[in-house]
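Q: For a teaching handout, I want to show students what a protein-ligand complex looks like in token form. Below are the inputs, and the small molecule is FE2/S2 (inorganic) cluster. Please produce the holo structure.
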Amino acid sequence: MNESIGAELVYSKVDEIIDRYKEEKTPLMAILEDVSQVYGYLPKDILERISHKTGIPSSKIYGVATFYSFFETKPVGKYVIRICKNTPCHVLGATDVLETVKKELGIKEGETTKDGLFTVEVTSCLGVCGVAPAMMINDVTYGNLNAERIREIFALYR
Ligand code: FES
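A: Here is the structure, written as tokens, with FE2/S2 (inorganic) cluster included.
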């Protein structure tokens, strides 16, 4: 497939998503969520396309895309690990959790493993402070973390 045909296909999918919400008064979040589902992240040229097609200023679109931690603006691994660093998790060992995860995967915060399997990020409260320290892998939340439990969890994904 040549590049221009590829780009047309990508944009036709984006345009289809935008059309889906054309009757909505505030369609941006829904569009970004659907585009994110399709591509796994929000590429810059796609954000520009959304701006061009909807008339929403690109500065506003970038603002929303970068504000919410569940939106990615760069390619990520198959599994995105989000480690909570807010106070309840911090007090109960979030720093050790992050260090263990980084050591186990051989990457730093914000990086993706070479095999494209895992990306590590830190985030704010996941809403499960009662089982702090906690992390999410994609949509699944894990609490009461320690080094042993983290290794057991990773074994499920490898
Ligand atoms: S502070 Fe970590 S889950 Fe709430």
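A: Two things your students might notice: Residues 3-67 form one domain. The chain is about 50% helix and 10% strand.
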